[in-house]
Each structure stands twice: as C-alpha cells, then as structure tokens.
Design a protein that fits this description.
The structure holds two protein chains of two kinds. Chain A is of the alpha+beta class. Chain A has one domain: Winged helix-like DNA-binding domain superfamily/Winged helix DNA-binding domain (Arc Repressor Mutant, subunit A, Orthogonal Bundle). Chain A has seven helices and five strands. In chain A, strands 1-5-4 form a three-stranded mixed sheet. In chain A, strands 2-3 form a two-stranded antiparallel ribbon. Chain B has three helices and two strands, in the order ββααα. In chain B, strands 1-2 form a two-stranded antiparallel ribbon. In chain B, strand 1 and strand 2 form a beta hairpin. The chains are: A alpha+beta, B mainly alpha. At the A-B interface, strand 2 and helix 7 of A face helix 1 and helix 2 of B.
Chain lengths: 151, 108
Amino acid sequence: MYERHQPHNDLRLDTPNSHSHSAADTERNHRMTSTDDTTETPAFDTLLELLEDRYAREILKATSQHPKTVKEISDESGASPSTLYHRVKRLLEANLLMEQTRIRSDGHHDTVYAATLKHVHLTLADGSFEYRIERANEDAADRLQRLWSEF
Amino acid sequence: MLGEMPVFGFRTFELLASLFAAGSAAAGVYIGYLALRSFARHRDPSMRYLAIGLILLTLVTYTFTFIASVLVHLRLLSIPQQDIFWTVAHLTQFAGLLCIAYALHRRP
C-alpha cells in the first residue's frame, strides 16, 4: 500500500488548510487529475482529511485485499462499528470505497466494502500541487460476480 | 473430399474437432478460474459450485475423452474398456451440469 511508504504526517504538512490560502486559491492551486474518468475524484482537502484519519486508513487497509463487513473491520481494528460507519460513509462519498453484496451460505446476504484506492500520486511543481488517484478497476472476476448476482 | 485431407497424419475434420474441443476446455477452465477468483474475493458459495461444474464439464471431460481417443487410436483399448471411458466422461459431464444447476438453485 502507498501508505507504508508515505507517513501521514508528511501529508498533513501539505494540507491546504495549513496555509493561509483562501478557498479560491486552494481551488486554483490544486489541480486534479484522475486516471479514472468515470469516477469522481474527491476534493484535495477531503482526500487528505480521510488519509489523515486513522480509522479511515484502517478501513482502507482492511478492505484492500478482500471485501469486509463493518463488523469484520471492527473485529480487526478494535474500533467501534459506529465510529467505522461514519468513516465508511465518507469513504463511499469520496469514491475511495465501494459497497458490495456478499451472499451467505444460509441464503441471506451481507453488505461488504472494498477499497477502490490503489495509488495517490502527489506532485509539487511550478507553484502548484497536482494529485492523481489510481483506483482498482473492476476485473473479469468482479464482473462475473456482478452478472451472477443480477442473473 | 476436403475433410478427408490428411494434416500432420490426421484427417482435417478430426483435427478441427480436436482443436475446438481443446478450445472449449480452455474457455471452460478460464471461466472456472474466474469463478474461483470471484469466490475467493466475494465468498459467494454458489461461485464455488459454478467453478467446479465448469471444470468438470470441460477440463475433466475433455481430458478423459482425449485420453480415450489416443488409446483407441493406438488400439490399446478393448470395446468394454472404451465403454468404461465413455461412461466416466458422461458421468463427469453430468456431475458438472449438476454442480452448475446446484449453483443456480442455491442462489437466494
């Protein structure tokens, strides 16, 4: 994961809120680019706030390999489900997490969450920040699951 | 006749049939592999049965029939032994279809 190579404190130093720029300056100075044209990229401030949040990072780490329920994330991280639900909602809004359905052996289903975030590229050049988000795209196995679920 | 023309010592249609059978087995294995990956990721039990069914229906059946064909070609199988091979091939095909049907049935 990207986070292993980039301590969150470094990101905190660069947040636009830590400077005296106005909102308009922030908008102007931080250009957004994304490799995924179909998915809305979260605002720079939102992205940094989420990555700075310990529980949001725990959710992203826990769901980076397999989709998990909030209860499973809670069991792993030790955070309360109510704390996690709030972060899950924000991560979903920022398109850094996706909601899926997992069918149980008894025929019922659980709502599970999977991290879509793969890489965040942050660049400071020519007086402005540029950042780019790479997301995990749906592959053939995911498509088969989706088609099977809808079948 | 075009279909009777020998290619690498095989009749053209015989070779084409073998190629399409191998292609079907490969396609079945690919979809079965995707189903297994999907099962590993999403833990949907019906995906596991879909994967097993596809692999039985294609790879296992193909392998049996291929081995039987080679043995028949080499005149190493008696008629009763051939019957056993074909019965096993039909059995794996049937088991594969049952698995797929079960995968469909156990979906909520």
